């Protein structure tokens, strides 16, 4: 048992869900949906038994309502992997991180994390190879760097920083949530070669 050591050393475990959330090569998958997450957390009820909430892994099954899942188990989410996927007929491709590029509503996902008081680590997960980059599949540097930039931009309301990122839910004076997107701020993203030529 590792929980006594985790509790003694204040180390929170965060299991990653199966990727993809369906059987491959005849091997069963275990952590694939809300029922499995709840069963895992109930099996070892210590707060040190937690979750990595990977939107790409869980979101590859469109039956998973990711914002609802977050609201159900959010107090045990210690690490979030944010990526978007385009799902068609039980097949998926990883896309850019913005909502309009895939099947997942990244704004609603991040809003749910904020609503449950998530204060753990966020990783802009995986990245495409863009601008002629050669890298390990799924680990394109430029695409992940764009995602970091998008998720760390600070958003201010009435001079007070209230949230970060293009997906961030910002409470305005009318108490409605709205999203401050990178596109709305006319952020121009160019490949490094183009940036060098124009500077």
Can you tag this structure with a few keywords?
single chain; 199 residues; alpha/beta; four-stranded parallel beta sheet; two-stranded antiparallel ribbon; 10 strands; 30% helix; disordered C terminus
Characterization of the model:
The chain has 199 residues and is α/β, with parallel strands linked by helices. Helices cover 30% and strands 21% of the residues. It has seven helices and ten strands. It has helices at residues 3-9, 34-43, 55-59, 66-73, 106-115, 141-152, 192-198, and strands spanning 13-15, 49-54, 77-82, 85-88, 91-94, 121-124, 154-157, 160-164, 169-171, 177-179. The strands form four sheets. The protein has a four-stranded parallel sheet with strand order 1-2-3-6. Helix 4 packs parallel to helix 5 (106-115). The chain is globular. Mean pLDDT is 76; it is low at 153-199.
Write a concise synopsis of the structure shown.
The chain has 199 residues and is of the alpha/beta class. It contains seven helices and ten strands. A four-stranded parallel beta sheet has the order 1-2-3-6.
Task: Give the SSE layout.
Layout: H1 3-9, E1 13-15, H2 34-43, E2 49-54, H3 55-59, H4 66-73, E3 77-82, E4 85-88, E5 91-94, H5 106-115, E6 121-124, H6 141-152, E7 154-157, E8 160-164, E9 169-171, E10 177-179, H7 192-198
Parallel strand pairs: 1-2, 2-3, 3-6
Antiparallel strand pairs: 4-5, 7-8, 9-10
Helix pairs in contact: 4-5
């Amino acid at each position: 048992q590792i929980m006594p050591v985790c509790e003694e050393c204040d180390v929170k475990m965060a299991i990653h869900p199966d990727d993809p959330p369906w059987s491959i090569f005849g091997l069963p998958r275990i952590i694939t949906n809300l029922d499995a997450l709840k069963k895992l957390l109930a099996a070892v009820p210590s707060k040190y038994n937690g979750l990595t909430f990977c939107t790409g892994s869980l979101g590859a099954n469109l039956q998973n309502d990711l914002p609802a899942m977050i609201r159900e188990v959010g107090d045990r989410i210690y690490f979030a992997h944010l990526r978007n996927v385009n799902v068609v007929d039980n097949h998926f491709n990883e896309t850019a991180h913005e909502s309009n590029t895939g099947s997942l509503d990244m704004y609603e996902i991040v809003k749910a994390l904020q609503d449950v008081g998530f204060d753990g680590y966020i990783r802009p997960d995986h990245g495409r190879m863009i601008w002629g980059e050669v890298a390990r599949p799924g680990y394109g540097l430029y695409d992940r760097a764009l995602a970091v930039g998008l998720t760390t931009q600070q958003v201010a309301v009435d001079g007070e920083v209230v949230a970060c990122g293009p997906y961030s839910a910002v409470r305005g004076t009318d108490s409605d949530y709205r999203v401050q997107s990178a596109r709305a701020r006319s952020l121009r993203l160019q490949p490094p070669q183009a940036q060098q030529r124009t500077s």
